[in-house]
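Hi support team,

I'm opening this ticket because the web form for multi-chain structure prediction keeps timing out on my end. I have pasted the exact lines I submitted so you can reproduce it. The total is 694 residues across four entries, so I didn't expect it to be a heavy job. Is there a limit I'm missing, or should I split the entries? Thanks in advance, R.K.
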Amino acid sequence: MNYGVRVVTLRDVAREAGVSLPTVSHVLNCRDTRYSPATCVRVRETARRMGYHRNEVARAMVRGRTGIIGVLGFVSSKIYGGEQLANLAGTLKQAGWRMHLALRDAGDIQAEEDYINDLVSQQVEGLMISADPLRSPAHYHALRRASDIPIVLMGSPYERPEVWIDSPSAMRAATQHLLDLGHRRIVYAVGEDISRKYPLHRVSGFLRAMQDAGAPLQQDWLPGEICDFREHVQAFTRKVLRATPRPTALMYTNDEMALVGLHTILSMGLRVPRDVSIMGFDDLPLSQLTWPELTTVRQPFPEMHRLTLQFLLDRIEKGKRARTASRILKAELIVRQSTGPAPGERK
Amino acid sequence: MNYGVRVVTLRDVAREAGVSLPTVSHVLNCRDTRYSPATCVRVRETARRMGYHRNEVARAMVRGRTGIIGVLGFVSSKIYGGEQLANLAGTLKQAGWRMHLALRDAGDIQAEEDYINDLVSQQVEGLMISADPLRSPAHYHALRRASDIPIVLMGSPYERPEVWIDSPSAMRAATQHLLDLGHRRIVYAVGEDISRKYPLHRVSGFLRAMQDAGAPLQQDWLPGEICDFREHVQAFTRKVLRATPRPTALMYTNDEMALVGLHTILSMGLRVPRDVSIMGFDDLPLSQLTWPELTTVRQPFPEMHRLTLQFLLDRIEKGKRARTASRILKAELIVRQSTGPAPGERK
DNA sequence: CTGTTAGCGCCTTCAA
DNA sequence: TTGAAGGCGCTAACAG
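Hello R.K., no limit was hit. The queue was backed up. Here is the completed structure from your submission:
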């Protein structure tokens, strides 16, 4: 049992310090206002000397609370890069909570189920789930209804409250940036099912700007379902740039796709932004390390996470009475070197 | 208490199924050979219908085991990218364990201590720690000695058993690759304290190759302590490339640094590899997405993690009797486009 | 100021 | 084939 590891318990400390067990418990939990300073010091000192670590498992058991939030993310996700994870954990820690993390691949239904069950078994008090775009919103609705513990979804369009960014404006501004540079033949590599709400938002912003400017639109310039797999982005980029007349600017749904796009374009011997301008969406740390550096739209991930977490904690602590107002955040256009005047616009 | 969340317990299931509590426990833990099939089916069905999730906290308490391994990594780490994490978790899962993750920044002593204490309090049965290069090996030795639970370190040079790669050979081969391309003025941006074992290993491989080839060496071409912060790498790269005669090749300690280096070089208006060749070390997924793609040395991270984990699990399960043989893995040179003939070598 | 008591949910003997 | 009893380490309510 326990593979032979012996740990110091409260009882050991109590015996050693010559006091009762609850006394030690109280003192170590800083409920020591009622104890004599001498006792407090002796207890603390003894505990330290004996290498006592409180047993959070037993503590959770008796309190009926673990103080743990479960986070289910994706293996490869801009949202769950190390910095974001550490931020999340840090925010939680400040609020007196701990984080349990599980990562699965998008589309791996079995893993999603396993991990959620596991987190629930571990008695997490709330669940933050990055919604799998390949699953129906109904699935998560059912999950929420069936579960006794509060769940907030990230990246799912049909949730209330929702924390998201003003994509239509952002995409409109981004598109306008290209139009201002003289671009007319602009391809938007959507790469997601535009029947979903957020992709739709972005596309609508793009279309709005293009129409207002009277710029031409071709249906095949708006492909859905590219997904962000490397080969697909590569193939799509190649195909699009072989058209005549060639588009002068490409907008990608996210920075990851734009990175692949940039690589593809440069490997075709074209120059960025001289021959083709490109833009991403997200503003990953990496996007400043490409050459040319990537023009993009910054998503305020830390703020989005903070707000989502706040919603979850509210719901845990206040139950159904928690406020559920949505928050729509601004996204900022970050102009770097991957966009420039359209060919022919330079004199 | 429990913020009002009610969960189904074994007792509830027992009552509902009309059997005793231990019966349910036995059946659900697959110790059901002794029970009638009818009972088993009824119990399982009832549990499923009632949405029973076993309480791992209570289970851990009574068994004196949590089945959890604590992993302490770095916020930004090639090792703890999402894929690696998921791999680790997957390997653990297969072996019947779960993972708890904590991430801290290198040099943040307080956080390291907090997280280790926290993981211990959570009753993890073993600890995998990415050793902080800024801390002394003695520190971790003391930690291991003081702790009752098994600890394995990753990236710490003075541990037994160690899982590492044959850096001298790898660096020698990498250097030879450049020498074969006609390079003589090669700068190795060590970026770490070469009094440490592994950096020393790499430097020794580099020096060996250079000396064997009779290539010139200047002391200031081997700076320690650059660290991999962007500004430092940038400044160093600029400084080195302003020298006369200019070096024709730069080797970076890792791919992250090489990425910054590449960005810096290109932004100086130099061409890679026409004017300067560069190499990294690690082979991150990203290194195939730069342009030109990065020549580098591949570290077999998944295998390294697997072996390290194996050591830890062995030690947990077999105690001191666990085998402690070290494993030195091969690292492979991956030639891509960022290295080419030295200027002047082309005719 | 300090100690006693009860029990959290579960698993594991042991007895029926 | 099933049920009863005990206890893991800790906290909370209450008694001294």
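A quick check on our side: The CA atoms of residues 185 and 247 of chain A lie 5 Å apart. Let us know if the file doesn't open in your viewer.
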